[in-house]
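--- STAGE predict ---
source: upstream dedup step, 1 unique chain passed
mode: sequence only
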Amino acid sequence: MIKPVETNTYLKTTENYQTVNALETSHIRVNIQNNIVLTLPPLSTGLPKAGKKIAITPPEYEGTRVYHTAYLPENWSQEKVHQGQTWPIIFEYTENKYPKSGSTGEVKDAAFGFGLSAGKFIWISLPYIHSNKMENQLT
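--- STAGE serialize ---
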């Protein structure tokens, strides 16, 4: 559950406007007044690992060019999972291809979920799948 913490930027709720400096989900805090520059992790292959964005082809699409990406935050570890720690998950579908905005419409270039969480949440970027079921579809 996301709850407001402190004051300075408006967060609209159904009841009123609340002022916040950060959004908190149990133990994860994202400062929304930070001037840091986020750098998207490069797309890689292999097993999921903290701080990496990897391409994954589901078994039912083996032998095709269909894939999605998954990112695990830098503080993620198997040990923390076994200790019961959890992380919020953002599922994102890629945006439409729109060159003027820099959007390629490709899963590999998705960035919204990473930026929204400042890289502190688990982030999955899902494709639209072409009707031939052999590749991701640009939108």
